[in-house]
Amino acid sequence: MSRKHLLVGNWKMNLGPHQAREFASSLAAEISALKRTDVWVCPPMVSLAAASEALLSSPVLVGAQNVHWAKTGAFTGETSPLFLKDLDVTFSLTGHSERRTYFGETSETVAMRTETALAEGLKVIVCVGETETERANGTTDQVLGDQLAPVFARLSAALAPQVVIAYEPVWAIGTGKVASIQDIAATHKFIQQLWNAQGYDHQPTILYGGSVNPQNFAEILALKEVSGALVGGASIKLDQWLELIRIAEATAE
Ligand code: PEP
Q1: CA-nearest residue, atom 7 of ligand 1
Q2: How far is the CA of 240 from the centre of ligand 1 (A)?
Q3: pTM of the entire structure?
Q4: Domain span including residue 123
Q5: Which of 3, 50, 92, 244 has the fewest beta carbons closer than 10 A?
């Protein structure tokens, strides 16, 4: 049986609690049962409770945009996986390129965040991707390998099914530029090979992210190497988000 598609919306630093509740309520009103697609959204931390409440009776799951590696302590501004669990949040992103670029996150701290979140029972979407210069220099595979190595070093086969990898070329995020279909296929295949070399006993779920919209999504999702998408901008425009869900529901895997 083929796997379901996974469509994840990253709201970034948009939609505070009131707006999040409103948006999530409109989304819940438009979505009934989903057959072929799991839909997850990542509101800002302060909007998690509002979005969760509004989406409670819908099939949409709510997750965090980041999670800390410690369970409690002197880490001002950070969020413990225990607090996310307390809100019935089921997953978190780690390593989004905006965290790496603007907040100094390293592949090591991303791996630490991932490890604790998994240990506490959350699913984790680990984001990786190369810059435009790295792609131009032909070092994409090296960069992705270096980003994933500390994650794999801390990931047991038992917890591997709780991990999703999001391949997001940095230069494609929020820019309107999309990687070519050939590059997406080749890079996902490379990540799949890295995963398989770890000896985990199932195939990885690998999402593409970077300026996905209703015009380009069907072609990307048609690739056998692509399990779904991580979407920023188009995930907070209700008409576009609903259209992406419709495409994922309609596209055969
Ligand atoms: C993202 O934030 O992960 C992302 C892919 O953003 P966008 O879809 O806006 O490029």
Answers
A1: 232
A2: 13
A3: 0.97
A4: 5-251
A5: 3
